[in-house]
């Protein structure tokens, strides 16, 4: 049994709702309203494009194309993480840290899933590799962006306390322990909430998709549990790496707080 | 002068600079200059909390040869407004029972209090004790008696004088009170046009 096809009118109606809500948000925050509209346009275009890319990949299964698409996805995720920050450095190191944290969190566990758990032949088949990586990247990206932003904002808000702890001879690792803890906690909230709500409040996206496509519910559940566990492991890894790398940028080798390296992105 | 404890040679930042400055242990240095001239900033340079260029040494050892945290444990800054991050005052001390609270007119019960409910004067005195608790060699004090009445100020000066002699430590402090300058200065450093100089005046 396949899901009934959606017409452009159906999608247009859904888009209209987003446009209307953006209209309500606009007087409160122009930036957020624009974000909603730009996000909607980008999402539609990107999904349409990935549909075409996947079609081409399925017709011509080679590891090189899969690798190339994966790298493009990773770079895009890295850009997203930085674009969401209120305090920026605009350096290569900043970009590299986001990418490294995300790769550590999502690439490693996606490989593990493809090679060990799913064990399809060939293991790099885009039908598994791309959706798995996409889900891993999407979730680690959100978590890492939250962690980095909480740490950078925490350091700016608690500047005086940080400096006083450093003045008393603490190493940056000790002086910033509270800020790091808050950042990790913030980044883990979505994945912890997702696990708590799964199956009771919400039916996760991948499982919903499989059910709509007519898959066996038990198999759909197994896949969903696998992907959530991988997401939990991947986001936690990514957050730990990202928090460490972000804090290292806040301090120099003499353990001085270096907020002068960052610039505040102003809301228009 | 005996061999200097703290010595600066052509220290420079965007805002402030100094040629040669030196002070020995047991000395009390008073740093003066109009508001906004960079006194607090200069203390932050000495504590190595902001980037600077040049040479600063402690007992002949250059700052670059000593890790930042270790330097700040020895050359310790007490800012004009203190901050507290633990639930109780005593949590900020390594040896709370050894703190000479009575010398500054404080009750021992204050150790069990939440710092955010204390007065600015109490916090200022506790901030000094918190720094002494870590046994620094050089104390950098930014307006240490700004929130204190004359009696408390006298107590604090006595404590600082004792610390200077007995440790023997080096004290570098700022003050807006001309009388305090006369009472407390063995040596005067002055900021003029972005440059810190030793005026050569001694009390």
From TrEMBL, chain A:
Subcellular location(s) per record: Membrane
Keywords (A to Z) from UniProt: Membrane, Transmembrane, Transmembrane helix
Protein name: Putative ABC transport system permease protein
Family classification: Belongs to the UPF0014 family.
Topology within the bilayer: Multi-pass membrane protein
Taxonomy, superkingdom: Bacteria
Pfam families for this protein: UPF0014
Provenance organism: Marinobacter zhejiangensis
Entry GO terms, CC: plasma membrane
Membrane-spanning ranges: 6-25, 37-58, 64-83, 95-118, 130-152, 188-213, 225-247
Keyword Transmembrane included in the entry's annotation: yes
UniProtKB/TrEMBL annotation, chain B:
Keywords of this entry: ATP-binding, Nucleotide-binding
Pfam families the UniProt entry points to: ABC_tran
Residues in ABC transporter domain copies: 1-203
Gene Ontology MF term list: ATP binding; ATP hydrolysis activity
InterPro entries listed in its UniProt record: AAA+_ATPase, ABC_transporter-like_ATP-bd, ABC_transporter-like_CS, P-loop_NTPase
This protein's record includes keyword Nucleotide-binding: yes
Nucleotide-binding listed as a keyword: yes
SMART domains, A to Z: AAA (SM00382)
Stretch forming the signal peptide: none
Descriptive protein name: ABC transporter
Annotated source species: Marinobacter zhejiangensis
């Amino acid at each position: 049994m396949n899901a009934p096809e959606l017409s452009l009118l159906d999608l247009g109606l859904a888009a209209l709702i987003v446009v209307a809500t953006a209209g309500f948000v606009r007087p409160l925050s122009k930036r957020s309203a624009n974000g909603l509209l730009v996000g909607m346009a980008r999402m539609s275009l990107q999904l349409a494009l990935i549909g075409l890319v996947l079609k081409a990949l399925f017709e011509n299964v080679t590891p090189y194309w899969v690798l190339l698409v994966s790298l493009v996805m990773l770079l895009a995720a890295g850009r997203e993480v930085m674009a969401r920050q209120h305090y920026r450095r605009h350096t290569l190191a900043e970009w590299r840290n986001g990418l490294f944290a995300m790769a550590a969190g999502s690439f490693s566990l996606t490989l593990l899933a493809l090679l060990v758990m799913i064990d399809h032949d060939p293991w790099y088949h885009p039908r598994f590799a791309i959706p798995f990586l996409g889900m891993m990247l999407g979730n680690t990206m959100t978590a890492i962006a939250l962690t980095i932003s909480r740490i950078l904002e925490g350091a700016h808000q608690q500047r005086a306390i940080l400096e006083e702890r450093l003045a008393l001879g603490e190493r940056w690792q000790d002086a910033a322990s509270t800020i790091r803890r808050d950042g990790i906690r913030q980044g883990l909230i979505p994945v912890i909430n997702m696990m708590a709500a799964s199956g009771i409040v919400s039916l996760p996206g991948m499982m919903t998709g499989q059910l709509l496509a007519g898959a066996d519910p038990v198999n759909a559940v197994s896949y969903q549990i696998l992907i959530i566990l991988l997401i939990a492991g991947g986001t936690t890894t990514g957050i730990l790496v990202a928090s460490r790398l972000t804090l290292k940028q806040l301090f120099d080798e003499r353990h001085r707080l270096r907020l002068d390296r960052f610039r505040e992105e102003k809301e228009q | 002068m005996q061999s200097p404890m703290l010595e600066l040679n052509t220290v420079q930042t965007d805002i402030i600079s100094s040629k040669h400055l030196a002070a020995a242990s047991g000395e009390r240095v008073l740093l003066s200059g109009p508001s906004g001239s960079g006194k607090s900033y200069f203390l932050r340079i000495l504590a190595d909390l902001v980037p600077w260029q040049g040479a600063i040494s402690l007992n002949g050892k250059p700052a670059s040869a000593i890790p930042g945290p270790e330097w700040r444990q020895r050359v310790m800054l007490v800012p004009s407004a203190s901050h507290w991050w633990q639930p109780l005052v005593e949590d900020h001390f390594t040896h709370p029972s050894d703190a000479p609270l009575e010398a500054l007119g404080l009750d021992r019960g204050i150790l069990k209090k939440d710092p955010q409910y204390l007065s600015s004067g109490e916090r200022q005195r506790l901030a000094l004790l918190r720094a002494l608790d870590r046994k620094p060699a050089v104390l950098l004090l930014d307006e240490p008696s700004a929130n204190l009445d004359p009696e408390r100020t006298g107590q604090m000066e006595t404590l600082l004088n004792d610390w200077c002699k007995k440790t023997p430590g080096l004290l570098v402090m700022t003050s807006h009170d001309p009388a305090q300058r006369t009472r407390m200065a063995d040596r005067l450093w002055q900021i003029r046009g972005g440059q810190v100089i030793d005026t050569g005046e001694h009390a």
